[in-house]
Amino acid sequence: MSTSTSFSSTSSSAPQPGKPQLKGAALASVISALLLSLLLEALDQTVVGTAMPRIIAQLHGLDRYTWVVTGYVLASMTMIPVVGKLSDQFGRKWFLLGGTALFLLGSLLAGTSQTMNQLIAFRVLQGVGAGMGMALVATIFGDLFEAAERAKWMSVFGIVYGVSNLFGPALGGWLAENGPLLGGLVTESSRWRWVFYVNLPIGLLAVLALLIFLPSNLSERTMKARGWASVRHIDVLGAVLSATATICLLLGLTWGSSQMYAWSSPQVLAGLLIGIVLFGLFLLTESKAEEPILPLALFRNQVFSAAAVLSVLQMMILMGLALYLPLFLQGVLGISPTAAGLAMTPLSICMVISGTGSGALVGVLKRYQLIAILAALIMTLGCLLIVLMSASTSLGLATLFMMLVGLGCGVFFTLPMLAAQNALPVQYLGVSTAATRYLGQLGAILGIAIVGTAVNSAISGDLLHNLPTDQAGKHLLSHALQLGFLAVLAFAIIAVIATIFLKDIPFGRASSPDVSGSE
Fold first, then answer.
1. What are the tens digits of pLDDT across the range 385-432?
2. Is residue 379 helix, strand or coil?
3. DSSP character for 185?
4. What residues contact 131, with CB distance under 8 A and at least 6 apart?
5. Where does the sequence pass through the membrane (predicted)?
6. Residue 461: pLDDT above 70?
7. Is residue 492 part of a domain?
8. Per-residue pLDDT for 5 more than 60?
9. What's 33's domain CATH number?
């Protein structure tokens, strides 16, 4: 099957004949297990950071500090598109169970690490498992529910991520300082191991519930062949090119944005150029593959393309602000780290409220474009006001501006995914959901790189190493951060434009990607 083939099958929101219908306790158990799996991924991104100083104190290796995070991100991102496609071909259950098991194994081993290199290796293993979960949790919600009901349930995703963002850092710090002692396994100086061990009881509950209650034939598989014949249909070359291109591109972006190497250095240029070339080869391969990892015809669907762009932009905005707003609050307004954290808490709360509320509203209205446009406009207004902030801006106003961004940004945690799932035939549920998750993760890296480059271009002298103490230094830092916030504003304006193309498709109606999602 070429990717130019017309997609004319049933919409993802239509009921599938013969598909097992979960009800009652079985449905509640599966939903709980899926949310626990999501919680594992969300918490892991927040609890580990606050424990890292304690980890470094015992394992040493400060020069490899960033690789604890980078290795995890690289591994998870390479898995998302591959597993999304394979789950469409062969079913979801065993990929999700396998991913959760790998994540738990990585957590157990990370907790036993004796060296920094061991910790990095086990974090990579965790990332492989997390990437499989990222690809599949939202997809299985698409299998379980029709579009309107799915929107209501997926709004809970915002609560899970919001709770993780609000309480994860504090939980990580508490575990690193107060985790219980376990003989020689966890000692006074290694209580930090609990930031990894805490995953085990949560994950085991999820695995048990999924193993018992999640049907293996819940999704409509596109692969009807069995045995070796089915293996031969796997797009191995596409998977390898996708993974290596992602790794090279992310390494180049990470090295450049973190100032580990200059953007003009051979290391950064090689990573970026090789990544771009490999992505080009990947697209060429996908255009000819019988069962491509990423069917390029998906991008002929106007709604899917708009949703993909919004997924990228939302994370570019969020990560660009998350990285540099604390610096503005502390370096320009002169408040303490604790006060800065408290000032940013309303932003997270607003994201939870808007993400949850918008999902429920989409489920009721069965429309999403107007919600997306309003959210993008509110987000853009907040970004504009943040650009206008200076050393004379009050903390109250700064918090209000951040809340506006949170209200707009939170909507795009699940809305693009819901729109994409509704716009495409059911057999592309896995690959389309995985694509939006993958692009969101890529957007986070791009946002950090672009905003970081804009800020660093205007920073020099003592500001490279220390926060300013005088008004002149605060003015210079404010100007540098303003350049970064201007980049964020540009992303928000593009997001407003993208929502214009996020056309409403009535829930439950078939959609054909080769006609740009038009009706």
1. 999 999 899 999 999 999 999 999 999 988 998 899 888 888 888 888
2. helix
3. T
4. 75, 76, 77, 78, 79, 80, 83, 99
5. 65-83, 95-114, 120-141, 153-174, 194-214, 234-255, 267-285, 306-327, 339-363, 370-391, 397-418, 438-459, 479-502
6. no
7. yes
8. no
9. 1.20.1250.20
| pLDDT surpasses 60 at 117 | yes
Is 36 within 8 Å of 202 (Cβ atoms)? yes
For the chain, give the mean pLDDT: 84
CA-to-CA dists, residue 334 to 299, 321, 330, 393, 474, angstroms: 46, 18, 5, 11, 9
Residues 393 and 409 in one domain: yes
DSSP annotation string for 31-67: HHHHHHHHHHHHHHHHHHHHHHHHHHHHH--GGGTTH
Query: Distances from the Cα of 316 to the Cαs of 169, 249, 481, 487, in angstroms?
Result: 21, 16, 16, 10
Residues 156 and 248 in one domain: no
Tokens of 406: 């949170």
Of the three residues 195, 219, 243, the one that is the final residue of a domain is 219
Q: Indicate the DSSP class of residue 179.
A: P
444 lies in which domain range?
Answer: 295-519
pTM, full prediction: 0.81
Are 249 and 307 contained in the same domain? no
Judge if 371 and 489 occupy the same domain.
Answer: yes
Give pLDDT, residue 515: 37
Please give the tally of structural domains in the chain: 3
